């Protein structure tokens, strides 16, 4: 009875909560107890809470299954889990577990779960997932923290995946047993990106629990192409250069989840080790370097793999001068100081006379003096071989080259002659072309080329040899003032401080001097051309004179001084004939007073008409057909007669009769 009374009040409270807030299991789940590994000695019991149970206090109880014994508490806190130490009794028998939540004076109990604790194991989700894609396969690997706690690597694994472009699509799920922390998904499309999640469970216990799912992982495509690097160098002319490296951004399918770069550069010659710059997320990198060559490599990597390495080689600063020989009685370099940490001497043999070898010599003063160190370096050098040395130090944290030279331990004459000598022969000159002597065959610093030539005469005698020195940087030369139609022998050799080397020779034949054209002949040709041009212009102007200079039209009737005809305002004049007298020229009784006047007019008209031409289509009014018509004029004196004749002709030619006044005071009537 006491037990029943003891459970009455909590039962009533639970019933009240069920009525007020719904079913208890909705807010408080069953407890789940497990070990994280098979050999673990601590159990984890956890449950989920929601709604009004968020701020509750929880207590975990257990009792043997199918037993009437009283419940026992395993712990109490405000978290949603409780750690339980190993208990041999709990491991051997099945027990019932449940959780009670307390909120003020109220409490709520979850449903109970029956379990044998030693048979329940729940691994944690796979940690530190790494991926690798190759063709259509995706390999997953991970590291379990519980491996140190004797967690086996052979587990049951479940993977679900889908294409990234179809995030709302259905997951594809596969379950497999693995012997180690690695699994391979096959038959994936290499050009597509994917999303996946992984979980695992034990296969060594009777009631294993699935671990939690890993967070969703984005799977990019693999990097197919190496990183293309471009570099530029800015020279400050003080022994320091600024090296800038840039490269392109990878495409989207590759860069999902970010692409990083691993860069390794050898920028400080005094240290043989490269300096690594890992996890670079940008597409550019700048660093200060010396005048020495800079080497290194770069590769890009993402979640599923990395690209092939791209080698980087920035050559040393090109140098032609200064250059020196290293005699026995002089120690070089001059600026080499015995500071161990921030100074060193770099020297190496140029493989083809110009290219730096893969391995260079770095010398520091470890024991002894500077002179002893330089002496030992000189002993290692070969005669007639070109070397390059640089002195480096660090100034304010920046690498700097303080001295650099090309050098020979000992110089000799060139071992070969210039190559591919060709000659372009003209009448009295010859132009030479050749290829320079390779640096490795010069055996010293080439000071100049020597060109010599001799002429063979018809009697077999040879003139004295003439020689010219040409700059070592030139590969062509023009020999002038040669004798036309002659045979010459030309010799070419390279010279160093030790003397001239072997020469290359060639035979040439100069051409015959062409005859010059007489100056008078040239002048005559020019004059002849000028005459022909003048004649042609004359003919053209003659033929087209009328178009070039059109004729000026002449007036048909001259205008009298005493008569002005207005051409702008012409009025129609009506003729009124008051009196008309017609006389026949053949009449026997002409008026004696009018005859002289008619004769004068006729003579004058005949004379003027004889000098002038008649326009086409116009009849002369004083022709013979009209001479029978007489115009009688009363004239006072001979001078007046001339005026009257002129007026009469004008009046008659126009076919009109006007009353005109003479210059005299008397009015002269003109009857028609």
From TrEMBL:
Region (Disordered): 603-624
Keywords for this protein: Membrane, Signal, Transmembrane, Transmembrane helix
CDD domains: FN3 (cd00063)
Polar residues: compositionally biased ranges: 610-624
All copies of domain Fibronectin type-III, residue ranges: 125-221, 417-515
Leader sequence segment: 1-25
One protein family per Pfam: fn3
Transmembrane residue ranges: 520-541
PANTHER family: INTERLEUKIN-12 RECEPTOR SUBUNIT BETA-1-RELATED, INTERLEUKIN-27 SUBUNIT BETA
Protein name stated in the entry: Interleukin-6 receptor subunit beta-like
Lineage: Eukaryota, Metazoa, Chordata, Craniata, Vertebrata
């Amino acid at each position: 009875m006491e037990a029943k009374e003891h459970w009455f009040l909590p039962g009533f409270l639970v019933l009240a909560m069920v009525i007020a807030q719904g079913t208890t299991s909705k807010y408080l789940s069953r407890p789940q107890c497990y070990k994280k590994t098979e050999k673990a000695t601590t159990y984890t019991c956890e449950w989920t809470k929601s709604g009004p149970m968020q701020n509750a206090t929880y207590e975990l109880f257990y009792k043997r299954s199918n037993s009437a014994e009283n419940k026992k508490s395993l712990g109490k806190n405000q978290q949603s889990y409780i750690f339980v130490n190993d208990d041999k009794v709990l491991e051997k028998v099945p027990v019932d577990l449940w959780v009670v939540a307390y909120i003020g004076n109220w409490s709520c109990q979850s449903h109970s779960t029956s379990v044998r604790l030693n048979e329940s194991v729940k691994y944690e989700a796979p940690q530190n997932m790494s991926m690798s894609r190759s063709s259509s396969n995706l390999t997953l690997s991970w590291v379990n923290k519980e491996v140190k706690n004797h967690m086996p690597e052979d587990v049951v694994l479940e993977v679900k995946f889908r294409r990234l472009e179809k995030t709302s699509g259905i997951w594809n799920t596969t379950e497999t047993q693995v012997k180690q922390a690695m699994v391979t998904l096959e038959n994936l499309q290499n050009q597509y990106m994917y999303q996946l999640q992984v979980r695992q469970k034990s296969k060594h216990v009777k009631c294993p629990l699935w671990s939690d799912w890993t967070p969703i992982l984005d799977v990019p495509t693999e990097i197919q192409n190496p990183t293309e690097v471009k570099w530029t160098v800015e020279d400050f002319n003080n022994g320091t250069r600024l090296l800038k490296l840039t490269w392109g951004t990878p495409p989207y399918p590759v860069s999902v989840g970010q692409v990083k770069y691993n860069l390794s550069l050898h920028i400080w010659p005094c240290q043989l080790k490269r300096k690594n710059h890992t996890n670079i997320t940008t597409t550019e990198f700048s660093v200060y370097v010396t005048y020495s060559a800079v080497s290194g490599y770069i590769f890009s990597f993402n979640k599923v793999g990395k690209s092939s390495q791209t080698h980087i080689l920035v050559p040393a600063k090109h140098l032609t001068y200064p250059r020196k020989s290293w005699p026995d009685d002089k120690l070089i370099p001059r600026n080499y100081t015995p500071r161990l940490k921030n100074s060193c001497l770099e020297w190496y043999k140029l493989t083809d006379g110009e290219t730096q070898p893969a391995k260079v010599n770095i010398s520091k003063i470890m024991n002894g003096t500077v002179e002893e160190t330089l002496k030992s370096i000189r002993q290692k050098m070969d005669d007639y071989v070109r070397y390059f040395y640089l002195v480096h130090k660090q100034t304010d944290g920046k690498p700097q080259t303080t001295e650099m030279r090309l050098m020979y331990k000992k110089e000799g004459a060139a071992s070969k002659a210039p190559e591919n000598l060709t000659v372009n022969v003209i009448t009295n000159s010859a132009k030479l072309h050749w290829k320079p002597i390779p640096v490795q065959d010069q055996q010293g610093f080439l000071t100049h080329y020597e060109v010599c030539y001799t002429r063979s005469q018809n009697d077999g005698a040879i003139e004295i040899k003439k020689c010219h020195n040409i700059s070592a940087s030139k590969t062509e030369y023009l020999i002038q003032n040669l004798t036309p139609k002659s045979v010459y022998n030309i010799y070419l050799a390279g010279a160093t401080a030790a003397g001239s080397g072997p020469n290359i020779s060639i035979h040439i034949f100069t051409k015959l001097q062409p005859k010059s054209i007489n100056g008078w002949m040239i002048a005559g040709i020019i004059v002849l051309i000028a005459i022909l041009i003048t004649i042609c212009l004359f003919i053209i102007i003659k033929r087209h004179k009328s178009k070039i200079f059109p004729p000026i039209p002449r007036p048909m009737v001259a205008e009298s001084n005493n008569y002005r005809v207005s051409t702008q305002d012409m009025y129609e004049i009506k003729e009124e004939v008051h009196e008309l007298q017609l006389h026949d020229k053949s009449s026997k009784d002409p008026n004696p007073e009018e005859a002289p006047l008619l004769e004068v007019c006729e003579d004058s008209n005949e004379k003027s008409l004889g000098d002038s031409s008649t326009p086409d289509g116009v009849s002369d009014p004083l022709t013979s057909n009209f001479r029978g018509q007489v115009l009688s004029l009363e004239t006072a004196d001979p001078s007046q007669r001339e005026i009257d004749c002129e007026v009469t002709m004008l009046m008659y030619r126009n076919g009109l009769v006007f009353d005109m006044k003479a210059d005299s005071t008397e009015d002269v009537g003109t009857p028609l």
